[in-house]
Specification:
By secondary structure, this protein is mainly α. The protein has a three-stranded antiparallel β-sheet, with no helix packed on it. Helix 2 packs antiparallel against helix 3. It is flat, with a radius of gyration of 36 Å.
Length: 170
């Protein structure tokens, strides 16, 4: 309550006298090359600046990268996965990829059917607005290209997972 009262008094006094109580005389700032300072170097080529707001942004400190601590008792062979477990993981990954490939293939077939060899059927609102039809055709073309790229990527992953399994001999 006491601070509020003092603030009120200062504002009233400042408003009554026409003096801005909050504005203090700014310090003179000098530009010395690329540096800004309030204490110019007499030898340097320092130019006083007008009373403009200058923002100083502090640089960030570089944090050291965390070091990887190695445990003395851990041997590289202990971190390997059992062959049976790895085969099980590979089989699960292959099953997931095959399911995704089948879904992507179904979506691609639906897009091809809607695409209709580059002549999709016009909808009711597109009869009077050819620009809307052209926009839909462009979106279908882009969706088909993405779908083909997805299928190719899934096929690459499937072949990558299948290749080591057929070439490996226990």
């Amino acid at each position: 309550m006491n601070r509020f009262f003092m603030l009120y008094v200062l504002c009233a006094v400042g408003a009554g006298t026409g003096v801005n109580v909050w504005a203090a005389d700014p310090l003179q700032v000098y530009r010395c090359g690329n540096a800004y300072t309030n204490q110019p170097d007499p030898k340097g080529n320092c130019v006083p600046l007008r009373s403009a707001a200058i923002t100083v942004i502090e640089g960030t400190k570089v944090q050291p990268s965390p070091t990887v601590a190695t445990l003395p008792g851990v041997v590289a062979s202990e971190s390997k996965v059992d062959i049976g477990e790895q085969r099980q993981r590979d089989a699960q990954a292959r099953a997931v990829l095959q399911t995704e490939w089948q879904r992507a293939q179904t979506r691609h077939q639906a897009l091809l059917q809607e695409w209709n060899q580059g002549e999709p059927e016009r909808r009711a609102d597109e009869q009077r607005q050819p620009a809307k039809y052209q926009e839909r055709v462009a979106q279908l073309r882009a969706a088909l290209q993405r779908s083909e790229a997805d299928l190719a990527g899934l096929q690459r992953e499937l072949s990558r997972l299948s290749a080591p399994a057929t070439g490996a001999t226990p």
